[in-house]
């Protein structure tokens, strides 16, 4: 009914940049908060950055000043620009969005993408 598909991951050298995208499709009525999470091997999933529908943002301390989250509401898409990447940023990055579907406009729920791998070499 609703899908979140991430793209843009890959292998990059330390100090490099990547831009992740996550697009929502299907029976989407509206999208509230969107965010990026990551999970490194052997670690718990953690919040990287989030953005409200009106554009208010929140970042993990470890990425402040290096990552920028943005969204295009017309395209139901959220982006994560990652600069000055460090080996510690290596993880699977997941997109999450609070989506209200056409089938039930009175309530919504969180949807997750399947993730995209980011590998930063030293």
What does this molecule look like?
The chain has 122 residues and is mostly beta strands. Helices cover 0% and strands 64% of the residues. The protein contains no helices and eleven strands. The strands form two sheets. Strands 2, 4, 5, 6, 9, 10 and 11 form a seven-stranded mixed beta sheet that branches. It has a four-stranded antiparallel beta sheet with strand order 1-3-8-7, with no helix packed on it. It is elongated, with a radius of gyration of 14 Å. The model has no long low-confidence stretch (mean pLDDT 96).
* Largest sheet: number of strands, sense, barrel closure: 7 strands, mixed
Q: Which regions have little confidence, pLDDT < 50, spanning 5+ residues?
A: none
Give average pLDDT, whole number.
Answer: 96
- Cα end-to-end separation: 41 Å
Helix content: under 10%
How many extended strands?
Answer: 11
Write down the secondary-structure element order: EEEEEEEEEEE
Strand content: over 45%
Morphology:
elongated
Radius of gyration: 14 Å
Q: State the secondary-structure class.
A: mainly beta
Number of helices: 0
